[in-house]
Amino acid sequence: MEWETVIGLEIHVQLATKTKIFSGSSITFGAEPNTQACAIDLAMPGTLPSPNEQAFRFATMFGLAVNAEIGKRSVFERKNYFYPDLPKGYQTTQLAEPIVGRGYVDLQLEGGRTKRVGIHHAHLEEDAGKSLHEDYHGMSGIDLNRAGTPLIEVVTDPDMRTSEEAVAFARKLHSLVTSLGICDGEMSQGSMRFDVNISVRPKGQEELGTRTETKNLNSFRFMERCIHQEVERQIEVLEDGGTIKQETRLYDGDTHTARSMRSKEEANDYRYFPCPDLLPVIIDDDYIEAVRKMLPELPDARQARFEATFGLSNYDAGSLSADAATSAFFESTAAACGDAKLAANWVMGEVSARLNSEELSIAAAKVSPEQLAGLIVRIKDQTISNKIAKTVFEAMWDGEGNADEIIEAKGLKQVSDSGALEKIVDEVIANNSAQVENYRSADESKRPKMLGFFVGQAMKASRGQANPQQLNAILLAKLEG
Amino acid sequence: MDVSEIEKLAHLARLNINDETIDETAKSITGVLALVDQLQAANTDGTAPMAHPLDAIQKLRIDEVSEPNQRERFQAIAPATEDGLYLVPKVIE
């Protein structure tokens, strides 16, 4: 039987405010445990929540960026469940009247295909603290620094049909929130966490299959892998005549497997009710229009601008414009070196390769845009070849200085002095008389291929520093001579 | 409300209701629900549900850090702490 996969996503996005959603505690990442947890965050008796204006502004920016209706009246509710990292015994969240209503996001997929994914709604809520299950004398440790961090939870319609579409949506959302500056996008720190709802149904069937939810995916790669595994598992169960149990599964990034959460961990009756500690928040049209005016350039517009202004291909413009920090890195490099095409190639090539292999974000790149521009300028003025430039780049990355300093210190300057090049060529010809003989007696059509051998020898003799065009010309003249 | 519903609610709310009082509890909650039924009989067509008994709107706070670290004071009254963490009965075996 042919099966169709149906995927919906819920994404928790931590907002890049200075303070928590209901208290004036800082939310700086990595602070000592419980040093950013005040009486409100700890649910001390007698405390009252005080909502953060910036969280509403950020949520409104998000809503406008996904073409959504903004909830002019938004109401907080209590979602009741017991867990030690939730001191109040309920999460303050929104249900019936969220800040962001229906919207959509358009995706560009491989092969020029486009896809529209519906946003069901997005609501404001507070994050929980963290439970540490290492052994503290048979007890669990609780860190409440994260408790009360403002989140928007974005809920999509079940519009995605493949893992490719789901990952493309996740990347687009990451690109949007980082471009808006409302989230730092650091997935490894939990700034964006994805829950994936997956079901399968026989192709052509209208009715949805029973879905499972896999929680807490914090990388695009995990998400893709998890979807493949879960789809395969569900199809196997159904083809064996079984039924899918609606359940919540937790993905483990270390073992790359998901397991069913036990019912004990699963709360199933949240008994929502409007929070009596908070009044409705009212937003008017003037506010919404003022926020709209503040919106920065969004990825789609940036991509179009990169194509139009810098003459980049659709693909290059797309991959450089997706992330705000990468875009800024590229634009600074291009401006400083005056060659957008070369800047694009280097940012997408060497820079991104080093970042990937060291698992760093572009903000942590060990070469600055100015340094990279300094290197590109030396390629353009033919001080060094492309190949040598890669050596210089590695040295720059390893902290050995700027391009010019490295070229000088390592003596990597391209040899363009024709006297010196002729000397090298003469030596190569003298040392390889048999090959020279072969070349000269070979058919005209075979010679270009044979020339490669001499170029290689001469390059090696110059330690890779010979100007390639000049070297070719001299070799040809001497061999044909 | 029958006894099994009361037991379920008590579990969700982590309340300990003993066997002697459970019938009495079921009876009194049923009484409260009867009052709610009476209220629900009122015609509310065209009336938007209220989110709060006060007819007022929420004031928002400027996003500036105002809460200093007072961990030591809070942890002084906690039953158990270690390495700055609050310790609680183990959540996951």
What does it look like?
The complex is a heterodimer of chains A (481) and B (93). Chain A is an alpha+beta fold and 481 residues long. Chain A folds into three domains: 3-288, no CATH class; 297-410, no CATH class; 418-480, Arc Repressor Mutant, subunit A, CATH 1.10.10.410. Chain A contains 15 helices and 15 strands. Chain A has helices at residues 53-65, 163-180, 220-239, 285-294, 299-310, 314-321, 324-337, 340-357, 369-380, 386-397, 403-410, 418-431, 433-441, 447-461, 468-480, and strands spanning 3-14, 73-74, 76-80, 90-94, 103-108, 114-126, 130-136, 139-143, 150-156, 192-202, 212-217, 248-252, 257-260, 273-274, 281-282. In chain A, helix 7 (324-337) packs across helix 8 and helix 7 (324-337) crosses helix 9 (369-380). The longest helix of chain A has 20 residues, at 220-239. Chain A is elongated, with a radius of gyration of 29 Å. The mean pLDDT of chain A is 92. Chain B is mainly α. Chain B has a domain at 1-41: Histone, subunit A. Chain B is 41% helix and 8% strand. Chain B contains three helices and two strands; from the N terminus they run H-H-H-E-E. In chain B, strands 1-2 form a two-stranded antiparallel ribbon. In chain B, strand 1 and strand 2 (85-89) form a beta hairpin. Chain B is flat. The two termini of chain B are 35 Å apart. The A-B interface holds A 17-19, 23-26, 32-40, 42, 50-56, 75, 80, 82-84, 97, 131-133, 136-144, 265, 269, 271, 274, 276, 278-282 and B 12-14, 51-54, 56-58, 60-67, 69-71, 74-75, 80, 82-92. Strand 8 of chain A pairs antiparallel with strand 2 (85-89) of chain B.
